[in-house]
Write a structure and sequence with these properties.
Helix content is 80%, strand content 0%. The chain has helices at residues 2-22, 27-34, 42-63, 72-88, 93-106, 110-138, 143-169, 172-184, 188-209, 218-244, 252-265, 277-287, 293-338, 341-348. The radius of gyration is 24 Å and the shape is globular. 30% of the residues are buried.
Length: 349
């Protein structure tokens, strides 16, 4: 019922945005704008998108403090496939899958990995806030933009400060001990039941918080922040390249506004592949430069189509490589199982 409710809410939100998007839009002008796109730039856009995947996987390895148990390919492929799942499944299911996939491969706590993914999202939000403030200061100091930036900074900056304080002062254990003590004071009939629930919750919370342990290392924190900004700089360049591929001559700040609005809009519930909020974010951002709605909508559709197409192809390649690896491993295992124990011992020796 919860998943159905989220799906319905997402569909309603997407429908409302689509009404706003297509109200008073000239469809002929949209089609005309599609024809202006320079296909020669497609390979460069896809290459830069692939580069962001590599940087994101490297940043995740830094958030895991460069633990050698996590192979770079495993982190990259799980990020690619997980984000494709995020596009089609509700409640960021791809992030949960990433934690289970990588954690299962190396027998690490899934909750710890999920904590590192949450920290990754917080760093993304902080980076976007900095870009948005930079755009406001250098180009459009509008009241509603400042309010949006302030709310975003409060959300992501507050989250980052909160997790840092949790890790820095390490009060989770003290809180858990207090809750366990209180559970013993419950009436006898429910004392054991409450105590078991408290133990389970505390266990999972401790594992989740362990995903923030990287905040104790200035070295890894600095590199992670640096990689976060690098990711979003490349994302802005991708967006700018898409925009100018239509023969337009808008400033780089237009792409920066777009990427900020798209990133913040992706937090809203919506249908698959963020239909509605994604296009409206484009219209809102380019509207600052008085770009016609139909033109902004055409650019948004092309941009999203390129990224989704590339993500599907990259995910298919990763799945194929993973399948081949499993197939090869099963064949080796079958051969080992068929050999006498003496031969196996000599081989390993």
């Amino acid at each position: 019922m919860k998943h159905k409710r989220k799906t319905i809410i997402g569909l309603v939100v997407s429908a409302l945005f689509l009404i706003l998007i297509f109200y008073n839009v000239d469809c002929k002008e949209i089609i005309s704008t599609f024809r202006d796109f320079n296909l020669k730039n497609l390979s460069a856009i896809v290459a830069m998108f692939a580069f962001t995947m590599i940087i994101r996987a490297y940043r995740w390895s830094l958030l895991l403090q460069a633990d050698k148990r996590f192979s770079f390919y495993s982190l990259t492929s799980s990020w690619v496939i997980g984000n494709l799942m995020n596009a089609f499944l509700p409640a960021r299911a791809g992030d949960i899958w990433r934690a289970y996939k990588v954690g299962g491969d190396v027998k690490e706590s899934k909750m710890k990995l999920f904590g590192s993914i949450m920290l990754e999202r917080i760093l993304d939000g902080v980076s976007v806030c900095f870009i948005l403030y930079f755009c406001i200061v250098t180009y459009a100091n509008l009241t509603w933009l400042r309010h949006l930036a302030d709310i975003s900074a409060l959300l992501f900056g507050g989250s980052l400060i909160g997790v840092y304080l949790i890790v820095r002062f390490n009060k989770i254990s003290d809180i858990c001990e207090l809750l366990e003590t209180l559970s013993y004071k419950m009436p006898e009939i429910i004392k054991e039941w409450v105590h078991n629930i408290v133990l389970s919750i505390c266990h999972h919370v401790k594992l989740f918080v362990s995903g923030f342990e990287v905040l104790k290392s200035n070295y890894y924190v600095f590199q992670s922040v640096l990689m976060s900004f690098a990711i979003w700089v490349v994302e802005c360049l991708i967006t700018y390249w898409v925009i100018i591929s239509f023969g337009t001559k808008y400033p780089i700040s237009a792409a920066m506004f777009v990427i900020c609005f798209v990133a913040l809009g992706s937090m809203l519930p919506s249908s698959s592949i963020f239909v509605g909020p994604y296009q409206y974010a484009y219209i809102l951002a380019l509207g600052i430069y008085f770009v016609p709605k139909s033109e902004a909508l055409a650019i948004a559709f092309v941009h999203q189509s390129i990224l989704m197409g590339a993500l599907i192809v990259f995910s298919a390649v990763c799945c194929l490589i993973n399948f081949m690896g499993l197939f090869r491993h099963s064949k080796v295992q079958a051969v080992e199982d068929s050999l006498p124990q003496e031969v196996l011992q000599e081989t390993h020796t």
